[in-house]
Specification:
The structure is a single chain. This protein is an alpha+beta fold and about 450 residues long. The chain has 4 domains: about 1-150, PH-domain like, CATH 2.30.29; about 165-255, no CATH class; about 270-350, Orthogonal Bundle (Arc Repressor Mutant, subunit A), CATH 1.10.10; about 355-445, Arc Repressor Mutant, subunit A (Orthogonal Bundle). The chain has 16 helices and 15 strands. A hairpin with a 5-residue loop joins β9 and β10 (about 180-185). The longest helix has 23 residues, at about 185-205. The termini are far apart. One of its GO terms (biological process) is protein transport to vacuole involved in ubiquitin-dependent protein catabolic process via the multivesicular body sorting pathway. One of its GO terms (cellular component) is late endosome membrane. It is found in: Cytoplasm; Endosome. It holds the Pfam family EAP30.
Length: about 450
């Protein structure tokens, strides 16, 4: 089993790998076999999978369709000790092969930290049988291995830990700030907070100096925004006596920070022929939180705006978005594309049920005021917490199911509860003493 020797890679609900905080995908190759040389306690034989190169790992995913609950494997670039270089990866009679040496510990598992004593080198080979730019993949493999991004992350983690420990040591009565002044009590806390915000403001100022600085600090800005969002969330849970205006501003700030961006957007350059497939999976992961906030259904146009805003400069066309959504039928993802009879397209969870919406609409139209006056799309939008355009589609669907009747006037559409099922066809003048029809008759008679 490969899982006995290679670390397991966690997958999202759409089958994409869960990336590390600062990890970026660089290249994709399909139909790749990963195998190792014969060894006593190390054997890897992985057939026809997707190979993803990131700044930190070489990830192998099982072929489509991905079985539920399955996981991929990965080789940390930190464990790679040597790459076998060839002048050309192309061959007329054989599939391209890429060989590299990895450090393996005495327990037969890949040494992820290169710190285990007694480790040895094992040669692993990637056999690339699919279509793709193999030479570009190998070039990026060399570039990422030499870049050693994982070492920079460790240095940043160590520096942040030292700064945090310094803050914690200074939080007592003997703490000092950066200028050497003693920080005591509330004044010391306020001074530390001021220093943190000044540092944050400096980072923002430096990042927006020009476009090059912005691009180089994009990852830092996204991570900073995520920290600010988490701080706002923790602050809102602790401050119970805040007024509505302050809570509204915090929610606005959270919405803005959530849309700062995707750290590793799928691009045509990195994914190649797998672009729409990987874009579809990434989109399925992205729409999870917007769907939760909108009640399980959201307009396709809204997702297009949110997704492009999160991708930053890597914008996609409406055709790419529609094609990515149409591929969800081939994948085991929890979302789907739906088209109403009017032509409006929305994205919804597969667990979404119209019956729940119909029940809320029926409760709304059977109230005393609405029994006489009916409801509009705006009234339903306020009750359902969705946009009026979406509420109108729900009302039209409820009408097609026989729950509502529609009245068209110069003022627009108004919908009423359908009373015809309660009318006895044999005697139209008989009014029962129970039911919605009896309630409607009482309200109209007393009006």
């Amino acid at each position: 089993m490969a899982g006995d020797h290679l670390p397991l890679a966690e997958l999202t609900s759409s089958g994409r790998p869960v990336l590390l905080p600062s990890e970026i995908e660089c290249s994709f190759l399909s139909n790749v076999e990963l195998e190792s040389e014969n060894s006593a306690n190390f054997s890897v034989r992985l057939k026809s999978g997707l190979l993803i190169l990131t700044t930190h790992r070489l990830i192998w995913l099982p072929p489509n369709p991905v079985p539920p609950g399955s996981k991929g494997c990965y080789v940390p670039l930190a464990a790679v000790s040597h790459i076998v270089s060839k002048k050309s990866m192309k061959s007329m009679f054989a599939s391209p092969r890429l060989s590299f040496q990895v450090s393996v510990g005495p327990d037969g598992r890949v040494d992820t930290k290169s710190l285990v004593r007694g480790s040895r080198s094992i040669v692993m080979t990637a056999v690339m049988r699919g279509k793709g730019d193999v030479d570009s993949f190998v070039a990026k493999f060399w570039e990422n291995w030499r870049g050693r991004a994982w070492e920079r992350d460790n240095e940043e983690l160590g520096s942040s830990s030292s700064v945090k420990s310094g803050h914690e040591s200074g939080s007592g009565s003997g703490g000092f700030d950066s200028t050497g002044m003693r920080m005591v009590g509330v004044a010391g806390i306020l001074r530390r907070e001021q220093e943190i915000w000044e540092s944050t403001d400096k980072s923002l100022h430096d990042a927006f100096q020009d476009l090059n600085a912005l691009m180089s600090k994009a990852k830092e800005m996204v991570m900073l925004a995520e920290k600010m969002r988490l701080k706002l969330l923790s602050g809102s849970s602790q401050a119970g006596a805040a007024n509505n205006e302050e809570m509204g501003s915090k929610e606005e700030m959270q919405d803005w920070l959530l849309s700062v961006g995707i750290i590793s957007p799928v691009t045509k350059e990195s994914a190649g022929a797998l672009y729409h497939q990987q874009l579809s999976r990434q989109l399925a992961d992205f729409v999870k939180f917007p769907l939760e906030r909108s009640g399980g259904m959201i307009n396709l146009i809204d997702i297009y705006c949110l997704f492009n805003r999160a991708r930053g400069t890597e914008l996609i066309s409406p055709e790419d978005l529609l094609r990515a959504c149409s591929l969800w039928d081939k994948f085991d993802v929890p979302v789907m594309l739906r088209k109403f009879d009017s032509g409006v397209m929305v994205i919804q969870n597969k667990s979404y049920r119209d019956e729940e919406v119909f029940a809320r609409i029926k409760t709304l139209v059977t109230k005393p005021d609405t029994l006489r006056m009916g409801i509009s799309a705006s009234d339903a939008a306020l009750t359902l917490g969705i946009a009026p355009a979406m509420a109108k589609e729900h009302l039209l669907t409820a009408e097609s199911q026989g729950l509502l009747c529609r009245d068209v006037s110069p003022d627009g559409f108004r919908f009423y509860v359908n009373l015809f099922p309660e009318i006895i066809s044999d005697d139209l003048y008989v009014v029962q003493h129970h039911g919605v029809y009896a309630m409607w008759n009482t309200i109209v008679s007393s009006a």
